[in-house]
Amino acid sequence: MESWLRSTPTWDRRATTGRRRRRRSSRPPSFHVKPGQTLKFSIWLSGAFTKAYGIVGIEGFDAAHLYISEADTNVKVLTSTPTQFSVTYLCPPNTNYVAVYVQDPEISAMTVIFVTMDDATLVVTKEAPGSGG
Fold first, then answer.
1. 44-92 tens-digit pLDDT
2. DSSP count for the chain of H helices, then E strands
3. So what CATH class is 2-10+28-126?
4. Would you give the end-to-end CA distance of the chain in angstroms?
5. Which of 23, 24, 70, 94 has CA atoms 20 to 30 A from the CA of 80?
6. Nearest-CA neighbor of 96 among 28, 17, 32, 37?
7. What's the CA gap between 113 and 71, in Å, rounded?
8. Cβ-based neighbours of 92, under 8 Å, separated by 6 or more
């Protein structure tokens, strides 16, 4: 489980447009995949957000570990009862690796985050064409 938490790409805020952009990670993402595969990442979350929200997602990278695309879902409300959050990702052409993540994209002085995570899974729900699966 720990390996995917370490694979989240870093952010570069120096973009001249003022928007965040991804830069190449020095560490390859953890999971090797094939173009055309469909993946589903699921995780059970409970807890609370104050002036915050979460994101659950999958990011795709090419053979050089450069970002290609992502699929994600926002987690706006958490309660003490665990709730399953899932995201599905179709690996586009040139995808060699994926990283899964759970994040809070913005933190301020008033932000309070208490999150418990359990039973994270990454499942291939559809094999790549021609792979025999």
1. 999 998 888 899 999 999 998 889 999 999 999 999 999 999 999 999 9
2. 1, 9
3. mainly beta
4. 25
5. 70
6. 32
7. 23
8. 35, 60, 68, 69
C-alpha distance from residue 63 to each of 58, 69, 82, 113, 128 (Å): 16, 14, 36, 35, 17
> What's the one-letter identity of residue 58?
I
> What is the Cβ-side half-sphere exposure of residue 40, based on CA atoms within 13 angstroms?
9
HEC string of 26-68 equals CCCCCEECCCCCEEEEEEEEEEEEECCCEEEEEEEECCCCCEE
Q: What is the C-alpha separation between 114 and 124, in angstroms, rounded?
A: 30
* CA–CA separation, 127 and 33 (whole Å): 10
HSE at residue 37, side-chain half, CA atoms within 13 A, is 23
CB contact at 8 A, 11 and 107: no
Q: Which amino acid is at 36?
A: G
List pLDDT tens digits, range 2-35: 333 333 333 333 333 334 444 445 455 578 899 9
